[in-house]
Write a structure and sequence with these properties.
8 strands; 2 helices; alpha+beta; binds (1S,3S,4S)-1,3,4-triphospho-MYO-inositol; eight-stranded antiparallel beta sheet
């Protein structure tokens, strides 16, 4: 295979719009601030982009746009968290460094796909 097809560029697993709020930073609780985020799962990372309007599925690549932040999924924990919000379809992602995010979508099928896809990556990394 060509140098770019494997190894050099990480695999794009999924991309889409989700409501996001960070609720803890290094274990310290933060005030919620929900906003719509363009979320990209690529390799072992979940990458968040600020401006959904300027994002397209092809614009996630480094250089094409600036990520707002990125989360390493290795060792992360994923749990449904409908008790942590009045919104429906909420799950919580906690990183090894103690950063916690809530992600949400009103579309049941979409949030379930995101949950399953992220869970699969975390489980795969746990087995390495
Ligand atoms: O868990 P909380 O504190 O009830 O979360 C709500 C608040 O963060 C609220 O902001 P202010 O209290 O700063 O105005 C947000 O507007 C709500 O969206 C938060 O609750 P939900 O249930 O939407 O996660």
């Amino acid at each position: 295979s060509s140098p770019d097809s494997e190894g050099c560029s990480p695999e794009l697993e999924k991309a889409g719009l989700l409501n996001k709020t960070k609720i803890a930073e290094g274990g310290r609780k933060l005030r919620k601030n929900w906003s719509l985020s363009w979320v990209v799962l690529v390799g072992n990372s979940l990458v968040f982009f600020k401006d959904p309007k300027s994002q397209t599925p092809s614009s996630w690549k480094p250089g094409n746009s600036r990520p707002e932040s990125s989360v390493d999924l290795r060792g992360a924990q994923l749990n449904w968290a409908n008790d942590l919000s009045s919104k429906k379809n909420v799950f919580k992602l906690r990183t090894v460094t103690g950063n916690e995010f809530l992600l949400q979508s009103d579309t049941d099928s979409m949030i379930r796909e995101w949950y399953n896809t992220i869970k699969n990556v975390i489980d795969k990394l746990d087995r390495e």
